[in-house]
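Appendix C reproduces, verbatim, an entry submitted by the partner laboratory led by Prof. M.T., so that reviewers can inspect both the input and the predicted structure.
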Amino acid sequence: MKQLTISVIGAGGKMGQRITANLRRQPHRLLLVEKAEAAVARLREQGLTVSAAADAVPASDVVILAVPDGAMAAVSADVVPRMRPAAVAILLDPAAAHNDEVRLRDDCSFVVTHPCHPPLFGEQDTPEARRDFFGGIHAKQDIVVALHRGTEESYRLAENVCREMFSPVVKAHRITVEQMAMLEPAMAEVCAASAAKLMKDALDEAIARGVPAEAARSFMLGHAQIPLAIVFGEIPSPFSDAAKIAMQVGAERVIRSDWRSVFEPAEIRATIHRMLHHGEKQ
């Protein structure tokens, strides 16, 4: 891959630092843009130079917007007009793009990507990789990538950069922005993260009712792995008849019967709107 000039907007934030660390291993020219004083200090402590957006963005082939979802509208409104023609912007989450809260240009390309994170039942090569739950340091993971607007040539260039950003990457799955929004927030956050929080709340409730904490945690984590292995086809064992009855009780008492409605387009848009505008006066 040819050497590129890449701006990382928000380089001192959580995602920005991860991305910057990986891209520094590549032969690209990196221009790091950051405004927050604490984040600027973190970058300078590493001996890195911080650039102004007004200088970095017009000089860049690729501009990575590593900023919080709620800031994307304002940041893109400032950054995108500064991009040179045929440049590529990479967004790290589908939310703002899905809800039309990203500034676009007809003469630039816009690509959205997100890590799948290391899979629960995936094999990793080292103990460090097995503890890299987020990915992007030691653990292998897949990513998803979508062309929001622009050319196929720009998409191919951006996909390569995305692979470098989240390295080591096994596979880049090309999907649409709409499909990515179904994956997150609808599938991964509204459903899966809520289920994870429910599991922790159930553990806490058992402890509060007298079960020793160590025993309860051991029991929960073991009994979380087995059902996941069964339902995702990792093992051929079925649920016991008694477990099936208990699961039916859970479906009746814990899970709303209309839960699939969170995947409806209007529901996804409404969920994302709440995420992007949390705390704002309505």
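The radius of gyration is 21 Å. Additional entries are available on request from the coordinating office.
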